[in-house]
Amino acid sequence: MKKLDSSFKVIKKKLHEAGFKLTPQRELTVEVLLEKEKDHLSAEEVYLLVKAKNTGIGLATVYRTLEILTELQIINKLTFQDGIARYDLNMNEDKHQHHHLLCLKCGKIEEVKNDMLLEIEMEIEKEYHFIVKDHRLTFHGICNECASNQLN
Prior knowledge:
Structural class: alpha+beta
Shape: flat
CATH class of the largest domain: Mainly Alpha
Strand content: 15-25%
Order of helices and strands: HHEHHEEEEHEH
Helix content: 40-55%
Number of strands: 6
CATH architecture of the largest domain: Orthogonal Bundle
Distance between the termini: 40 Å
């Protein structure tokens, strides 16, 4: 709970610094994103969870809030193979985000926290005189659970 509180304070501060108020609708949207941090929710999934907490919130309001949070780099908007935009909290002040493992059978998305591409980045910067600001990497395959089910 302490991590959620500190993350919430950071998000509130970023919104305030950018000139946005933390309206009750935005607060609920942020709350859902923090509670479901590992789930890579779509806008519709966020909306349904927010609506379960407050039936008076519309889908357009949730979409606008997600766009504001994306613009402020509080969340990342990711699109995987299914073409659905999903949202991922960006609470790290590091240069890079984590990578993803996407199961082609069940659609489960797992996070890889290690950044194993630093050497490649340095090579790119040196050889191409290109300053890398970020990179995204998704591995497509079969998760352990689906692989085990295939054997049975």
